[in-house]
Design a protein that fits this description.
The protein has 108 residues and is α/β, with parallel strands linked by helices. The protein is 56% helix and 19% strand. Helix 1 packs across helix 2. The longest helix has 30 residues. The two termini are 18 Å apart.
């Protein structure tokens, strides 16, 4: 069996995801693996559907999610109560697209 070195953790920032993230950090500590946190934002379209407006609305969502992701990771580390947990995750990533496609692409 191959040694697990990285755990991909997609999140929707829900309370259940927060608990699962704490568990993922504990599991990563036992396996000496790194955790990669991923959140996917659907592209947002304005009523007029002009490309400039679509880009701006999506960018606004991305700007908001950056802070949400940072706070999510901090709370998960605190819940995990692992001294090494803060060193385990290597990447916080927010992508635009559909969750299924983005998660599969990152897993590969």
């Amino acid at each position: 069996m191959e040694k697990v070195t990285k755990i991909l953790f997609p999140t929707d920032f829900s309370e259940c995801a927060e608990n699962a993230f704490a568990y993922a950090l504990k599991l990563a500590a036992k396996m000496q693996a790194q955790v990669e946190v991923l959140h996917v934002v659907y592209p947002v379209a304005e009523a007029l559907d002009y490309p400039v407006l679509v880009g701006q609305a999506t960018q606004n969502q991305l700007d908001i999610k950056v802070d949400v992701l940072r706070n999510f990771v901090k709370r998960g580390i605190a819940k995990a109560e692992e001294k090494a947990a803060a060193k385990l995750y290597t990447l916080q990533d927010i992508e635009v697209g559909t969750p299924v496609d983005a998660i599969v692409a990152n897993a590969q």
